[in-house]
């Protein structure tokens, strides 16, 4: 039985397992739409460089076992040295309060499942839920049909959350390949501020397929930062769709650090819904063996006097394959737009490859927009300079690669996260660097 057939066959049982049923009609409609669309193939323009057969030809369990035996030592290894953070821990889809630490006040924080069961939050969900996620994509419809667990946070007007919040999605103790549909909803009201870190971790040898959808709403003069730390094992697949809508004078950042996972697809869509908006997207990808990481970004400049900045760096070894497709759309009324997009890549082996395609669609005439991409190897002159000073070839290469990737994380405000990314960079590049 194909995965598509499994999805259709299991849906009624999934619906019957839910305590909340007010989304049933939406879920059934989404499943019907998914059934009509089907999984993307390489014949689809948006997936011409990313073959999903490895994912879609496997069988999965749609109802993960809830019990786990994660030790404190295992969990501590996932932390960033973040004693002063808050963290939310989901294990096998379920929120575990005993593993979480939540000190934030004056906000509405709930697990997605609880929020759906709470009548007083129904109005919030009807106003925000699934309003900016695309209705035309296979994976967003699949997520709506099956989403049950995830993270919901509403930050009220002028509330500044000082501590970053780390959301952990952990899978462990599963005997079969497991399918998760996680859902995140972040609402940052006027003048508010919050930073979120999201990471996924598979502790088993069985495969995990996670289909994640995140919706971020940033209101006037608010600031929302979402950091995706992707460093899972080689039996993990992740398809992530993140949608961010910004109102005037707001700032939203999504940083994506891709170091692990067998196949990772990141779709990032920014919608600017006012003037004087700043949108930032940064990414670092370091992969090897036969891993694949695909970044697809889109920024919709719909109002004047706004800026967007995209800076993605990729380092590929072994038979790794990278994809970058960045799009910037500038509406005819979006005068004084300033949009920057850059994708730079280094290939370390003959088997590594990158398909990169930055795109601009501009309908305004008073704008400053630039885009570019580079694909190459390390600078031989710089290598010679370092080796002439007694540095080994391997270490010289690693130092140059570290410097190459480093500027894509300069806007991280969270020092423990920046240090963690630096350490992961050093580990991947096998170089000793003091922090």
UniProtKB/TrEMBL annotation:
Domain SUF system FeS cluster assembly SufBD N-terminal stretches: 8-167
Signal sequence residues: none
Top-level taxon in the UniProt lineage: Bacteria
InterPro entries registered for this protein in UniProt: Fe-S_cluster_assembly_SufBD (IPR055346), SUF_FeS_clus_asmbl_SufBD_core (IPR000825), SUF_FeS_clus_asmbl_SufBD_sf (IPR037284), SUF_FeS_clus_asmbl_SufD (IPR011542), SufBD_N (IPR045595)
Pfam (any one): SufBD_N
GO annotation terms (biological process): iron-sulfur cluster assembly
SUF system FeS cluster assembly SufBD core domain location: 175-404
Family per record: Belongs to the iron-sulfur cluster assembly SufBD family.
Protein name: FeS cluster assembly protein sufD
